[in-house]
């Protein structure tokens, strides 16, 4: 996507949200230090209701906005963290919102269990994708197995997918899709957090 004036990224929040899967994403989207966009990206939480939700780590989060009121044209991306709700009807509104976003050409990023929900809805049947394991998605009886990639994160036509074991790669794919950072900064961030190479820190300090 190209950078636009819309710099709001929406993070779906719900009970049992897997905290660790979006920590890198939220921290760096809200930190405008190295952003290349003319402005500053910000993250807003969105949920099916405005009551507090409790993450898998026991943190309580008060949603900023209602999922039903979210329009693709008002967002730069919808991010769906992993959770324990994905096989239930409680997760259906998030899947349908993801479908609405993709149909409108606005990116969606899903990790871990959220990829299972998208698979069950047929949203992975015609896009290259990944997840925590191929066997996980195969067990759901979806039709997209031929497009599964043994990679930590995959982007195809605005849909980013990743497994629970790849929060840093998930973040890198999101930053690349949003064009938040210039390539050298993105490389240095991954060198620091992905490769755990301290040289990445010194590179970032020199930007």
UniProtKB/TrEMBL annotation:
Signal sequence segment: none
Keywords: Glutamine amidotransferase, Transferase
One GO molecular-function entry: transferase activity
Residues of the DJ-1/PfpI domain: 9-176
Keyword Flavoprotein recorded: no
Protein name: Glutamine amidotransferase
Lineage: Bacteria, Bacillati, Actinomycetota, Actinomycetes, Propionibacteriales
């Amino acid at each position: 996507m190209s950078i636009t004036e819309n710099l709001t990224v929406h993070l779906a929040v719900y009970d049992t949200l897997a905290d660790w899967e979006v920590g890198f994403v939220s921290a760096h989207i809200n930190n405008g230090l190295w952003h290349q966009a003319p402005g500053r990206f910000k993250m807003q939480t969105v949920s099916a209701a405005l009551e507090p939700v409790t993450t898998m780590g026991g943190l309580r989060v008060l949603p900023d906005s209602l999922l039903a009121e979210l329009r693709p044209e008002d967002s730069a991306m919808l991010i769906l963290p992993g959770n324990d709700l994905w096989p239930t009807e409680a997760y259906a509104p998030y899947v349908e919102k993801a479908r609405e976003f993709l149909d409108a050409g606005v990116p969606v990023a899903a990790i871990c269990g959220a990829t299972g929900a998208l698979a069950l809805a047929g949203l992975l049947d015609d896009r290259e994708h990944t997840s925590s394991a191929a066997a996980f998605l195969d067990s759901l009886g979806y039709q997209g197995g031929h497009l599964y990639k043994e990679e930590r994160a995959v982007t195809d036509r605005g849909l980013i997918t990743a497994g629970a074991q790849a929060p840093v790669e998930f973040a890198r794919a999101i930053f690349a899709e949003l064009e938040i950072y210039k390539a050298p900064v993105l490389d240095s961030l991954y060198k620091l957090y992905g490769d755990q190479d301290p040289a990445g820190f010194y590179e970032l300090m020199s930007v």
